[in-house]
Each structure stands twice: as C-alpha cells, then as structure tokens.
Amino acid sequence: xxxxxxxxxxxxxxxxxxxxxxxxxxxxLASTYAELHGTIGAAINYFDExxxxxxxxxxxxxxNRLEWVAVFWACIASGVIAVPVDFRFSxxxxxxxxxxxxxxxxxxxxxxxxxxxxPRVRTFRVEPATPDDIVEIVYTSGTTAEPKGVTHRHRHIxxxxxxxxxxIHKYKKWALPxxxxxxxxxxxxxxxxxxxxxxxMPVLLGGAxxxxxxxxxxxxxxxxxxxxxxxxxxxxxxxxxxxxEVERRFQLSAPSPSILTRLWRYRKIHSAFGWKFWSFVxxxxxxxxxxxxxxxxxxFLVVQGYGxxxxxxxxxxxxxxxxKRGSLGRAxxxxxxxxAPDGEILVRGESITxxxxxxxxxxxxxxxxxxxxxxxxxxxxxxxxxxxxxxxxHPEDIEHVLNQFxxxxxxAVVSVRKNGNEQVHAALILKDPNTNVDTLVRQANxxxxxxQRIKSWSVWPDNDFPRTTSTMxxxxxxxxxxxxxxxxxxxxxxxxxxxxxxxxSLERVELLSQLENQYQVDLNEEEFSQLKxxxxxxxxxxxxxxxxxxxxxxxxxSRPLSDWARSLPIRLFRTIFQQLVAIPLFKHYLPLTVxxxxxxxxxxxxxxxxxxxxxxxDAPAVFAALPFRWRRRLAPAMGLDLFQxxxxxxxxxxxxxxxxxxxxxxxxxxxxxxxxxxEVAGVRRALNYTAELLKRGYCPLVFPEGMRSTDGxxxxxRPGIGMMAIRLQRPIVPxxxxxxxxxxxxxxxxxxxxxxxxxxxxxxxxxxxxxxxVAQKVCRAVEDLQQFM
Length: 789
Prior knowledge:
Elements: H1 8-14, E1 18-23, E2 28-32, H2 33-49, E3 57-60, H3 66-78, E4 81-84, H4 91-101, E5 105-107, H5 109-116, E6 134-139, E7 149-153, H6 154-171, E8 182-185, H7 192-205, E9 208-211, H8 217-226, E10 231-234, H9 236-249, H10 259-265, H11 267-273, E11 279-282, H12 289-298, E12 301-307, E13 314-317, E14 330-331, E15 335-339, E16 344-349, E17 361-369, E18 375-380, E19 385-386, E20 392-393, H13 395-402, E21 408-418, E22 421-430, H14 437-446, E23 456-459, H15 476-485, H16 505-519, H17 525-529, H18 534-544, H19 568-589, E24 592-595, E25 608-611, H20 618-625, H21 628-631, E26 634-639, H22 644-647, H23 654-671, E27 674-676, H24 683-695, E28 699-702, H25 720-728, E29 732-738, H26 740-743, E30 756-760, H27 771-787
Parallel strand pairs: 1-9, 3-4, 3-5, 8-9, 8-10, 10-11, 11-12, 22-23, 24-30, 25-28, 25-29, 26-27, 26-28
Antiparallel strand pairs: 1-2, 6-7, 12-13, 13-14, 15-16, 16-17, 17-18, 19-20, 21-22, 29-30
Helix pairs in contact: 1-2, 2-3, 6-7, 8-9, 19-20, 25-27
C-alpha cells in the first residue's frame, strides 16, 4: 500500500455492505459503502465549486458521522490536506488552529449538513498522490497560545496500517460468519487512534464503523446491544464507567478459569451487551491492570497498545490471539522501541513523522520491556516526582493504592514544592464528604514505600478532575496549579441559586440529560422533578453520585407502555375496526374535506405529524383523512393526565383505575395511541418509546400546543416538537384541523354534527436549530395552512 488512495477501490467494491451506523439512542441511521462512496463524490464536487484544489487545507470541526468520514476521504482523493479538530474544542481555539494552519475552508456541522443534502456522485476523479504527499495536520493540544500540529504523510499512515492489513488478510475468511463486524468508535475522528479504528479498519475488515453522541454508560450498553456491536473503541475511563454500570446492575460472583463457564455464569451481562459483542479496544491511555482483569473475568477481551500522534498512531499492540495482561504488546513491524537509561520510551521507524533522519522519538513516557519484547507503561516522565532524597516517585503507583479505598472515587497525585523541595500531594474526590481524610491518608501511607508517602492532601471541589478533551487523561499540570494556589485545602463550592420551578419540563429533561452525561451516572427522574433550586440540586447530586444509581423511567410511567398494541392480532383487529366502523361513522356524521395529499407522493415513512388541538376527535379526523398506507402507520400521542389513575393506582379508587384503564386500552388498541407525559418524570422514557415507534416504521401524531384549545385559536407550540425533530431527525408534517372546535370542544359534553377540514402541509426538515426555533417554525407552518382554508 503506497498511499491511502489504494483503499478507495475497496470502498467502491464493498457497495451494499454496511459502512457506517450512527445511533443517538433515539434513532439509528445505517449507510452502505455505496452511499459513502456517493457522498465522497458529492464532497469532491463541493470542493470544486468552492475552488478547493490539491494542496489546499480544509478544517473539519464536527461530531463523528457519515459526512465527516466522506469529507476526509474526499480530501484524500483530491489531494486536499485535512485539518481535523476535536468538535469539543471551543470556537476560539478552533479559530486559532484555523489561522495557524492557514486553512482555505472550514467545515462544521452545518457544512456537513450541506454536503449531506447534495446529490450523490457515483463517479469522481482521483488526483494522483505520492507517498510524500501530506494527508492531514493533527493538532493534539490547544492549551498553548500558538497551537502546533503534527504533519502526516501517506507513507507514515500506510506504514502503520500495512501490518494490520497483512494480519487481517490471514483471518478474513474466518470472519465472514460474523459480518458485519461493527466497531463502535467512541473516540473523536480528530484523534489519530479514532481515525484508525473508525475510518481505516472497517474498510480493511469489510465491516462497519458505528458512532454515537452518547457518553452515558447505561446508554452505551443499550446501543451496543441494539446495534449488534462487535468491538467498542474507547478510552480507559469509559471502560471504568461501563464497569461501574455493570456492578450497579448485576451481582457478580467469583471468577471461573473456564471461558465457557464464565459465559454461562455471566450470561445476563453478555445478554445486556448483546451476544455479538466480545472485545474492547482501549486507546489514549493505559488500562489499569485491575480494570483489565475485571473484564477478562466476565469473558470480554481488552486489547490495548501504545501509540502517539507522531507515530501515526500505533507503536505496539497486543495481538488479540496472543495478548498478555498488563502489557502494551510488541512493536509493529517497521518500528523499533528502546528504553533509555532514565526509563523513557524511545521510538523510531517508518510511521514516525519526526524520524525521517532515523533519529529516535523521545515520547516523554516511561516504560519497561520484558524478554519477549512486550512493552509495559510506567507513567509520564514529566509527571514523575523527584523527592529531596533524589528518589523517583510515579504518581500512578500512589493513585493505585488510594483508589482501592471504598471512600475514594478518584485521586490525582501531583508534586508541590515546599521549602524548595518537591513533595507528594494527593488530590481526592470522595464518595462521602464526611470521610476522615487524615485517617485514610495514614492508612494509604502504611501501604507505600517511605519515599512514596503522601505529605499533603486536599479534597478536590469539583466532581471530576480537568481532563484532555480527546483521551480524557487527567491534566496534572492544571491540578497542580490549582492546588499550589490554595495549598493544603480547597474551598467548598458556592452554588449560584436558581429557581427550578420556573423551568419547563423540557428544560428540566435537558438539564438532567446534561448532568447524567457530565457525572456519568443514571439519575432518577422522579426525584429530579421535585428539586426547587440549585442548593437542592447540589445536595441531591452528592447523594445520587455516591455509589448509587436509580433506573430511569421510574415514577409516573410505572406500568408498561402499550407495546402490545403493535402485535399482529391487535393490528388486524384495529384495521378491520377502523375500515368498517370508525371511519365510515366519522365521515357519515362529520363530512370531511382533505387537502395537501400531494405532499405524500414522494414522502417516505416514518415521519412525525404535528397538528393543532381543539378536540378529542382530532386524532380520528387525521386517521380518516390519511390514505390507507399512512393510516396504518399512525400512532397518536395522548396526554398522560387523561389516564392518571391507571398509571398511579395507589392514589385513586378501584373504580377510577378500572375506567381509565379501560379507556387507555381502547385508545391503544383501536387507534394505536401511546402516552406522552407533560411533566418531567417519565418524559425521557416516552421519548425513547417515540423513537422506538419510528424505528418500527410508525408515524407519531403529536399536538405541540400541549392541551386542547379553549377558544378555538392556534396557540404557541411547546419546544418538545423541536426536541423530537432534532434528536429523531425525521421530517415534520404540519396539519391544520378546522371545524372540530364547534363539533366537540373542551366545552362540550357530547359531539354534534358539523363539517371538518384537514389540511396537510409541506414536510419540514431541521438540522441544528434550537428546539424553540423549530417549534416556532412548525407553528407558523400550521398557521399558514389555516390561512389557505
């Protein structure tokens, strides 16, 4: 393989094989290699229209998705130099990288949306490349005033990929029964290791890459199972979060030496991940030996290696069939690894971007090698503490001891200077704020060598240490800086008071989701819905994140949702009832006029219908107005408050529970309805259920006003419709219903005769607007339909 362009024919030849899968937890999109190939062509044409030529630089600043991969391959095909930037970087940092790299075009999320909407191009030109041509410039850090990038040429990356290509060729035929081999890449594609596993390796395997914006451990497990993932690529911190999730959900027994016995003993855990999942690939930082042992005990393989951005990126790797726990594996063919006298890892070879003259790359990492040539990580050279006695202390050794204490959630050991000498200082994040830290440190020191002992400590005030954006490593320099400014102790947090009672249910859901992603725990919706201000929030977070997790979806939706309504017998009965009874009766008593059906001619299901709400007969009116092929897919959302006794039986009489339960069953069975709560508790579960309906091809019908109109006029739409449009990425079809307010409104006890008109509008698609903006646009679209009547 001379250049990366040699892989382009493989992409074309894979055609209908799955290439990329994107899952948000709400919605999953799968694309074939033919679609990827066509999007590459579209991106190349996009470059041509903007005057981007070979040698120009294009900055990519967006989340992992199909179009990101397509733009990157388009750069390779056209000789354009890619400048991938971590989407989590601030805009200010991105602009500084943009200026330093002298890019001619910046493609952000909106830019990828534009490329997504372009016509696919099956045939495109490839600008011939040489091994010395530049592929990309990768910026590994942006904390300095002037970001510095690492330049990668075709020969560097190809030299790094060739050993994998050779090895995969040996086993490729044995992998056919397991295709598609899906690799869930949780690293950003701006990271070299993320590219290796998310862009190149799927093509070499003939498999697929999977991406997700989710970082919550419980949802990662769900995504792995639902998408039949084979391998998860993640930083060790994610493996730790997944370990915590497993320990919360399952009772673990003693390990067994037999792999078959392990599979049987831990079958519920394997079932939770899905039986196709078998391995983690860890990158960005070394995996703790106990964490590796934990997953091995459950029967999962952890593959780790050692790499650097300057190495393009892999230096050593553990072969899946010859792995040794605790080791980072052997050097790849074409690379040499040496341990310097001071313990530093030195590397040279074909894939080293700075080693064209054959010189050694000083990695700044400390390591050791065994007699078999396996590498072992010992820490960062710059993090090493040199005591006044001239002895070296590795922070990882002390953190390993501290993290064994059940009171410690995480620790970071750094050097602080006192009287001109370096001393060992431990910053601690505690599970229980009432822990006696003096006693804990004394117990830890009893387990350490004399020169390793902790001289001072502080309780870290935040819920996590500062970390790098790509690999999630603790930024020790920042920890040390903050500790040095306030030695021996850290001030408690002073929360800014905020009245949560004024927040809408949607805002609460968004805040809860952000908190879960930030603190990596599954928080209880019902408890969260009762919080009044930030002081209560802080106390609740402290309690909720101390070794405890409540399952989402408790509380209001205590009974199972109406999945039975989608069973084959009920679907058949519903179709017969609607066709022979409900719709003929509706049209007999309420003459119906329908407009806008032409919008369905080129529309593909599923979609989301959004209508004004004046009557309990709105949903039957839409059923009667739709063509049969759309009618059978309709799933109206109904307010949960109508059936509150059924969902909260302890608060109501048996008679109320029975009657509301009967109404709920009839609504679900006869009209395929499902409950959509108006309050925060249970909203996420209902939104997940809406997503599940879309996956099955059903079309939710929602009433974004949130209640029936009391005056017959259209009122503003709540931002929940915006959340659905953005997160579920389905077209929104506006509907205006006229006439039912005078037939059966909130003021009527019984319906009367009257003419009804239902008008369907042009489908609306949204990408990156705010939820409020989307809600306003959908409301205006419905209002416009009213004016044409």
